[in-house]
Amino acid sequence: MSISGTIGVISGINECVNLFQWARSSISSLHSRWSGKQEQNLQDEVLHLQSGLQCLSDTLPAMYNLIDRAEWRSHKHCVAELLPKFSDAVYDAEDILDEFRWYEQKVTVEGIASQSAFIDFFNCVIQGSFNKVKDIQKRLENLSNLLEKMGLGEATPRFDKSVRPETSSFPIETIMFGRDQELTQVIELLVVREGDSTTKAHSKGKRECRTINSSKRTLATINHVCNEQENGLAVLPIVGIGGVGKTTMAQHIYQQVKPHFKKTIWLSVSDDFDVKRLTKEALQSISGEESTGQLDSLQHALHKTVCQKKLLIVLDDLWDDALKENGQSWKRFCAPLKNVRKGSIMLVTTRSQKVADGVRTMKTLKLNGLKDDVFWNFFKLCMFGSERFSNDHELEQIGRSILPKLKGSPLAAKTLGRLLRMNRHTTYWNNVLESELWELRQQEDDILPALRLSYMYLPFYLKRCFSLCGVYPKDHEFEKDYLAEIWVAEGFVEPQGDIPIQDIASQYFEDLVSRSFFQKVHGAYVIHDLLHDMVQMVSKNDCFILKNVNEFQKIPKNVRHLSVLSNPKFDYSKLLSLCKHEKLRTLICNMPLEDKVVAPVMDHWCTELGRMRVIICASTTGLPGSVCNLKHLRYLEISRASPLKSLPSTFCCLYNLQILYIGECKIESLPSDFDKLISLRRIELCGFRYYLEYQLNCDALEAEQKKRYLHGL
């Protein structure tokens, strides 16, 4: 994976040469004002600044790689302490490079009239003896050295065995709750797949399809002949989010149908789909003896062992690398399993629908959360040690109130049950009830660390995209095109040749859907509540949702993405206090800023929060002249009808602005220099829409009409 392009500012840094050449030429042309030594000192300072910026640009890709590796070990306290500081330094590097890019664009737009651009940037970076670029370089160097000393710069990242222990075919849970119908029918399906004379008549009427039921409703239809391989080895995937009970289901199936198969194999795969290792372990599972040799000899031995035998093989915890090399790795593993006896089957457990679709020969069995009374009985067992009764009616009522948080997840029930069992005081239980799940201390094998493994396995660019979703509240309905635009504006999308950047971002979204991070419900995309808790956990230093007045003090010091939910108690002073979070990149304000008391806060935000790239505001009386301070701004949206009738002339200094959505505002005029917004790709205002990427599809007359319309405002 190439991650050097994940931040768009890097691609433009080479253009800085022109501005620095201008600066050096200007110093030389005014040499009569200084002595030779003074001129040389000035030239040296310019060269050092140019070199420093280039060094930051060259270093960033390695820094992203180090962040990615550090996240794999962030369950270790020493890494968890350093990672936020290191990420903050990387963010600062991105911001200063992006700010320089703005000055470059200013020169492009203004020409000779902007000769002060370099001086302005120079004064911004160098303040007396303090040099921002050198400071960032020093922080990056010190922190990266500390992280690399912890071994993060070495081997390929893999799941730590402490957070992803190896599984076996023996169930830890002797009783399964709420899965009786699925378990019974899958077992029946496997037992009748023998294909010999004793079962042929029995199975004939059942060969075409079988329905797996759960809680008296259909979950999945398993088609026996769907893409079934000629070798007779069917593949049945069991899919669901982490902690839903896939492994437990597979263990119970394995133990109950094992007597019906001549050969049985259980493989704990995890994130290392190594064909040779798995082939060795398959042989050892059958023979009980350790096997050695080259892959060819190992596969011949496996083929000889299972040929014309009825085989049951379980691959537990399959991840995306099973499909590496365009699926060739998977085919290589399956090659010696040809010519097994009809009725043989492979069970696969995975969190990824993409993986399930890539390996299945039968329709996937999807496990959802446990339902209603069954889940309550299981949760009582976790809390009190018995599903039948508890000794404290008040605690039981609190437990019932906690139950909806867990969304039917057995592992979530175990996690909260363990916490509650440790302390039987009502005050403690009420604190758990009032807390977000991600705020509670958890062990490495609890629900959120388990779900976090899915996040860890994402490519770095998808991690950044999904972690941003921590700024949206639970049950938020996402639109693919909207979120793709936000990701582009944040600089998370890597260019790929001539493909429109918006299309690339849309593909990112589809990738996350295929990995089950988004699910479609009633036509809209949402994030499962437990995955939302997980994303808030992994983004807790960067993202924050402001709901209540008492939460202003909880906002992380260096928060980058903030959403403000509508609350009448959020007064001017409270909203003004957000200005201290000067590193903010995203501000989503869902409360109107039309009231005379709170309206002036927009001016302060634009003045103090100069690093913002995305602003979404419900409504406002107007945009202040100080909007010109938002050099990084890419996305601006006023989502509701507002008194806003015009844009200030300083608005035209937003050279990075890509998206402008103010369609509900009755704009009466645009600034005369509106065409200076050279990065603008999409505009919606006054019922008018214009998408630059589709301009080439318009005829000349239509394009001219649009141009006249804009100039006519």
TrEMBL record:
Q: Where is the Disease resistance N-terminal domain?
A: 47-103
Concerning SUPFAM superfamilies, the annotation shows:
L domain-like, P-loop containing nucleoside triphosphate hydrolases
Q: Which UniProt keywords apply?
A: ATP-binding, Leucine-rich repeat, Nucleotide-binding, Plant defense, Repeat
Give GO terms: molecular function aspect only.
ADP binding; ATP binding
| InterPro entries associated with the record | Apaf_helical (IPR042197), LRR_dom_sf (IPR032675), NB-ARC (IPR002182), P-loop_NTPase (IPR027417), Rx_N (IPR041118), WH-like_DNA-bd_sf (IPR036388), WHD_DRP (IPR058922)
Q: Which Pfam families does the UniProt entry name for this protein?
A: NB-ARC, Rx_N, WHD_DRP
Which positions fall inside the Disease resistance protein winged helix domain?
471-535
Q: Which residues form the NB-ARC domain?
A: 223-384
GO annotation (BP), single: response to other organism
Q: Which family does it belong to?
A: Belongs to the disease resistance NB-LRR family.
What's the protein called, per UniProt?
NB-ARC domain-containing protein
The organism's lineage is: Eukaryota, Viridiplantae, Streptophyta, Embryophyta, Tracheophyta
